[in-house]
Amino acid sequence: MARFLRPTIRSFISSQLRMSSEQLGELGKGAGKGGGGGGSVRQAGGAMGKREAAEEELYFKRKEQEQLAALRQHHNEEIDHHKKEIERLQREIDRHKGKIRKLNHDD
Among 28, 51, 52, 96, which is most exposed with the fewest C-beta within 10 angstroms? Predict the structure, then answer.
């Protein structure tokens, strides 16, 4: 994705990611440089902190997957609705063309 961005935007995004990752420190290793500790278990560090960090990451990954699935479902429903609308409008067009043919035939 980054190769499609302009170089200035790409460098800005990569510098922001580096800065945010430096503040975080290593997940589960206690409080980071940013000030927020993330709770007493994560502040303590050690195996429990690593486990808590892993569970938190897994939770957000699952939540993101659920949101993406809901978004896909919504888009599929929109596509189906628009296809039905196209079919309805095509029937209307055909009906009007039939009326025009009938009027031309009557002349």
Answer: 96
Residue 2, domain member (yes or no)? no
Phi-psi domain of 26 (left: phi exceeds 0; alpha: psi -120 through 50; beta: other)? beta
- Residue 30 is part of which domain span? 9-104
CA dist., res. 15 & res. 2, Å (int): 13
* 99 CA to centre of own chain: 47
For 12, the token pair is: 């800005």
Prediction pTM value: 0.51
Length of the chain as a residue count? 107
Does any domain span residue 66? yes
In the chain, how many domains are there? 1
* Domain-located, residue 97: yes
